[in-house]
Amino acid sequence: MTESASPATAMSTLNTPAYVVAGMASIAVIVGSLGPWGILQNPLASATFSGTDSSDGKLTLIAAGIAGTGLLVRASWNSSVPLIVALLAGALCALVGFTDLFRGNAMFAESGDVFASIGWGLWLVCIGGSSQLVGA
Taken in order 126, 129, 131, 134, is the CA torsion positive or negative? Predict the structure, then answer.
């Protein structure tokens, strides 16, 4: 009796730990894009602004959605194209996040008597975008 090997499925050829990291990173970038990117405080008032208040946050939100969609497509289609799309979207998220992070630090350093800081949302976008690069 000979046993024939079953054909490889899309999920069987997938690096599952890296796939999970990339999927969680996509979710992190989406949450970070919706979260606060900056916090301004003075003795009388405080204000926060989220990522979606700017075009950069909207861009990272869309790119993270594209990356997540690419990962879902890869689960059913045995091709490297969805992973390349997810990788490029993750690179865009990381680039935008770190650019805004460095630009925000430089801007906040000159704020004078107003206390300004980077919000957790921007940090999450930077970490998630970098993790997408590692996972995809």
Answer: negative
